[in-house]
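Quick sanity check, Guanylate kinase-like domain-containing protein:
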Amino acid sequence: MKKNYPGTLFLVVGNSGSGKDSIIYGLQNKYPSHMKPLKLVKRFITRPPSETELNNPITVEEFRKRANSGL
């Protein structure tokens, strides 16, 4: 019996500076418009932000609140 999955999950992981964001930017720019919509997760960080990263800087306290509430 064939299962109907709503989509495919791809994880882009690697060390700091290994090019993860470059891969994500490239995928966004070349993603075919006729395909299912591409969804990206939001990255919340508690360290100082970098100009080249896709992230949302928040305080440690806000991070804990979100984690405790299930966000």
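Posting the structure with no commentary besides this: The CA atoms of residues 49 and 57 lie 6 Å apart.
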